[in-house]
Every structure is written in structure tokens, then in C-alpha cells.
Amino acid sequence: MSTDARPPQDQHPALGTTLPPLTLVSADGERRQLDDVVAGRAAVVHFMRSATCPVCLAHAAQVQRMHDAGELAGAAFLLLAPGGAAEAATAAGRAARRSPLAEVWATGDHADAGLRKVALLQHSGTFVLDDSGVVRSARTSALPVSSFDADEVRAALA
What we know:
It comes from Isoptericola halotolerans. There is one protein chain. This protein has helices at 34-38, 54-68, 85-95, 150-157, and strands at 23-25, 31-33, 43-47, 76-81, 103-106, 117-118, 121-122, 124-129, 135-141. By secondary structure, it is of the alpha/beta class. Strand 1 (23-25) and strand 2 form a beta hairpin. The chain is globular, with a radius of gyration of 14 Å.
């Protein structure tokens, strides 16, 4: 077994597996592990293309509407920007009005989760994790409009 938990850059975690260990950074520079932030809860985890991606922020707003309609079944919502504390702060500021539910962090490099850059476009993606951290839904794309599907999220949480 390899000691490198990072998936290949052209492959995100598959259904039935777990996300690799990721160190998250908050807007104030706090560092925590993804597993500690999720803390045994089901979760919708959205990797943003950038901290300012309007499409990613629209996805966050959709997740908020799903929460408000009772469709998240108590799942946490993590919004992850690539970069560090400054990007987490930017994403948090932009998401605050659209999705107050979102727990906003930065991941450093999305490649740690298998989300690569293609032609300078950072892949974004949405993963639904069950309460044991197993990936129940995964949708990624270099085009942010294709990295989220509300019906897939609902089905994975059902």
C-alpha cells in the first residue's frame, strides 16, 4: 500500500471510497483536517474553481435553498476554495449572503483530491459523503456549470 494518499491528478475519489486526507485552512489561518471538520456528519463538499467563481457561488446558493427546503437531511455543507487563508476569506465573504450554511475553507491545492487543472482551468466538483466519510456521489468538471447536480445530491442523501 502506498503511503501517498493523494489520488492521481486525473482521477478523483471514486464512489465507495473516501476523500484523501486534506488539510483545510480557514479565513483566519486555522488549520484542520477534513475528517475533523466533517466530524462524522454526512456532508456535501463543493470544491470551487476559484474563491470568486460566480458559478460555484450559485451552486452554494442552490445548496442553501436545498437546506432551507429540508432536503439536506442534516448534512453539513463545506465550500472549499483552492489556496490559503486569503482565498478562504474571499470565498467566505462572497458566500455569506448566498449560503450562510456553508462552512468555507481553503484546500491549498485541489490536486490533493484528484481535481486537476486542464488548460489552466481548475476542475471543480461536488462530493456527497455519508456519515462515515464514504463518497456517495461525485461530479467534477473543468467547467463549473457541470460540477454540481442538485438531483444527484438529493439522491445521494436519501
